[in-house]
Amino acid sequence: MGVISRDFVFMLGMTHGVLFIAYLMLSLLVSNKQGWSLFVWLGLFLASIVPLAFLPVEWFLRKEAENTAAVAAPA
């Protein structure tokens, strides 16, 4: 047997799965509250699976937040 036991791998995998499901549920709630389209949520979903895909999504969301703040700021 290796250094890592099966019990440890099971607990780590279960924790990872629960956190992943929680992330998906939270992303659905946030996208609904922000009024984002299904495509934005699909981008969030893909970014949670594909390595380094979070970078373009992060840039997009920062740009979106800056545009929203600029519109909401008094002139």
Output mean pLDDT. Answer: 86
Indicate the structural class.
Answer: mainly alpha
Distance between the termini: 67 Å
Biggest β-sheet description: none
Q: Any idea what the shape is?
A: elongated
Number of domains: 1
The number of helical segments is 3
Rg (CA only): 17 Å
Q: Helix content range of the residues, please? A: over 70%
The H/E string reads HHH
What is the total tally of β strands? 0
Strand content: under 5%
Low-confidence stretches: none
Topology:
Blueprint: H1 6-34, H2 38-47, H3 54-72
Helix pairs in contact: 1-2
Explain how this protein is built.
- It is a multi-pass membrane protein.
- With 75 residues, the chain is an all-alpha fold.
- The protein has one domain.
- The protein contains three helices and no strands.
- Helix 1 runs antiparallel to helix 2.
- The radius of gyration is 17 Å and the shape is elongated.
Keywords:
75 residues; 0% strand; elongated; mainly alpha
Task: Please provide a brief summary of the model.
The chain is mainly alpha-helical.
